[in-house]
Design goal:
Number of domains: 1
Strand content: 25-35%
CATH architecture: 3-Layer(aba) Sandwich
Radius of gyration: 16 Å
Protein name: N-acetyltransferase domain-containing protein
CATH class: Alpha Beta
Order of helices and strands: EHHEEHEHEHEEEH
Shape: globular
Oligomer: single chain
Organism: Shewanella denitrificans (strain OS217 / ATCC BAA-1090 / DSM 15013)
Largest sheet: 8 strands, mixed
Number of strands: 8
CATH superfamily: Gcn5-related N-acetyltransferase (GNAT)
Helix content: 25-40%
CATH topology: Aminopeptidase
Number of helices: 6
Amino acid sequence: MEIQLLEYERSYQKLLAHRQDVYEYALLEHLTNKSAHFDVELTQDKASLLFCGIIDDEIIASCRITELAYLDFDFQQRVMSLCPELDIDKTFMISRLCISAAHQGRQRYKQLLVHVCRWAKINHHNEYYLAKCRVALAPLYRAFGCVVIEGSRYYDELGGADYLLLLGSIQQTYDTFTKEKY
């Protein structure tokens, strides 16, 4: 799998089609193009860096990183109330980590996140990342060094499930993956 930053003009529609397939497979209807929330997703994409894993010119994996300053102010306030010591100027939000059903597995997540962490270490001053996940996926994030932010569990009306916020260190996640502990 080759991983690269998305070229908007050339590949954005491919990315949207990839996400659509993943979300329909995972029954995440609120993230598909049939949802009223879809425009919010498009707006956040424009304020983010989008990484894609590609095999044979097909996007099979993707991940979005966004500076916290570009996220909803209410979300920023929630993060600051839960983590008052966190420097939001040194923190990304990692979201829309999607792997196509036919390519799912820890190895693909690892490849994508190693690339994103390596890119962040070389090209950016950020040290941390936040991630939002369904409760059932928290062990996956813990396996590569994330901690659940205490008091962060909430019910997402759009997703119809309980979610958690997690905090990770870019360096620690990179080290975990590159030292093959994962």
